[in-house]
Amino acid sequence: MAIANKNIIFVAGLGGIGFDTSREIVKSGPKNLVILDRIENPAAIAELKALNPKVTVTFYPYDVTVSVAETTKLLKTIFDKLKTVDLLINGAGILDDYQIERTIAVNFTGTVNTTTAIMSFWDKRKGGPGGVIANICSVTGFNAIYQVPVYSASKAAVYSFTNSLARLAPITGVTAYSINPGITKTTLVHKFNSWQDVEPRVAELLLEHPTQTTLQCAQNFVKAIEANQNGAIWKLDLGTLEAIEWTKHWDSHI
Ligand SMILES: NC(=O)c1ccc[n+]([C@@H]2O[C@H](COP(=O)([O-])OP(=O)(O)OC[C@H]3O[C@@H](n4cnc5c(N)ncnc54)[C@H](O)[C@@H]3O)[C@@H](O)[C@H]2O)c1
Ligand SMILES: CCCCCCO
Questions:
Q1: What is the CATH number of domain 7-243?
Q2: Does ipTM exceed 0.90?
Q3: Ligand 1: lining residues by beta carbon, under 6 Å
Q4: What are the UniProt keywords, alphabetically (predicted)?
């Protein structure tokens, strides 16, 4: 998908990975970038607007843990204004294995509910135009950081959900792919709680190994958007972009 002249909704577009990705998206000249995020940062929005005045950047406060009905109401406001939306990026995430319920609510249920809400505007069975969904999962969805099993499982869940969305595309008209960053230097990863304190130094130990910058991640994120491959499993690690081949071990045959 060429980003130029498209309408994009970016949930969590102001976070560490999110903001650098928003910058790279704005440089590519979409018609509209609508950022939904829990954190309000007017200076960041102003910076995006200044980066490319041809792009209309708007912000709405949004918490992914609200109901589908409330999300649908917000999306109606956006669709009434934009008329069409080409891409939804779901990027909200927390990393704290002390917060079990909230981790699942934000990282998994939040993505599922936001996706469910946009289907009423996109589903071709309801006369919708279809659309594209990019879900930010994580390499930990493939191979867990087992000291944060709740976080890793939440990422495996949203990764699995994204794969199913892609398989359902012939029915719904909505395609999907996953964005799976490796360890990327943001505030999320500086320090976080392991589950049951199994490893109090988990962040310190992980950060002893090579990582990538948010800019490297963002530049590869845009390449994945442009590739626009339904069902793609994109690994964005150590400054590289790689489409992962997933090994099938079972098939439902339906
Ligand atoms: N940094 C990494 O190493 C890494 C690796 C793989 C995946 N990820 C994922 O990338 C995404 C961004 O992470 P980051 O490292 O930039 O961290 P970050 O903490 O900078 O960003 C997290 C983003 O999620 C938003 N968010 C959190 N709770 C929310 C809620 N309830 N409603 C709406 N938005 C909410 C935050 O406002 C922020 O924009 C997360 O989903 C994270 O799991 C990060
Ligand atoms: C340093 C640990 C980073 C964990 C986030 C991977 O999704």
A1: 3.40.50.720
A2: yes
A3: 12, 14-18, 37-39, 62-65, 91-94, 106, 136, 138, 181, 183-184, 186-189
A4: NAD, Oxidoreductase
